[in-house]
Amino acid sequence: MSEDVVLYESSNHVGLITLNRPQARNAVNGDLAEGVEAAMDHIENDPDIWITIITGNGPSFCAGADLKAVSSGDAGRLSTKRGGFAGLVMRERTKPLIAACDGPALAGGTEIVLSCDLVVASTAARFGVPEVKRSLAAAAGGLFRLPKVLPRNVATELILTGDPISAEMAAHYGMVNTLCEPGEALATARELAERIAVNAPLAVRESLAVMKASVGLDDEAAMKLSGQAMRRLSETADYAEGPRAFIEKRAPVWQGK
Length: 257
Fold this sequence. Notes:
Helix content is about 40%, strand content about 15%. It folds into two domains: about 5-195, 2-enoyl-CoA Hydratase, Chain A, domain 1, CATH 3.90.226.10; about 200-245. The protein has a six-stranded mixed beta sheet, sandwiched between helices. A three-stranded mixed beta sheet has the order 7-9-10. The two termini are about 30 Å apart. Strand 4 (about 80) and strand 5 (about 85) form a beta hairpin. The protein has ten helices and eleven strands.
């Protein structure tokens, strides 16, 4: 993992990935993409990490692709084989991922946000896909993920004009889970992560997986997936711990197994 352009730390079952190219507004180059992928590998393989937050150092969350890298012929390194753009947008993963945006997340920055499960943003944040202003396309998920989190006409306006949307408007339409004051996005995201971390981690992962996999399915197929998840959970140690803690009137002690 690159220790320079991607920072990683963890505490209390929460991992934190920090995009660390503030001088370039955390624009994605090859080193950053590789660093994010390496961090995600570590998180997926570490049983002590249950939830992850991704944020940016400096006044921007992420300005998208580093156009200097693109113009120099280094565009191929902005994506990784498993993660896609930024080592993340197409990554298969099992653990919840929260975006903490304390500044603009534009172009590929918005596409990184759209690949997360939850979004915390301060009023200093903005979201948008301005690719059409540079004769590009938002090819890292923006064209099909924006219409899933915003009303269709709002998403169409963003995609065709390239103009951004404020954090307040994004929260109004449901793209942002929690809106906060500037400087508070990471702390607010940690609070959200802690609310998740009190729950059984395997149940959280199974529930998230079923929710994602059931999009577009009919009720019968989705019910089948839900039942399969419940059967898998019934074979875990935490499945017995939940009811036992309730009966004994104490907080459960989850093992994640």
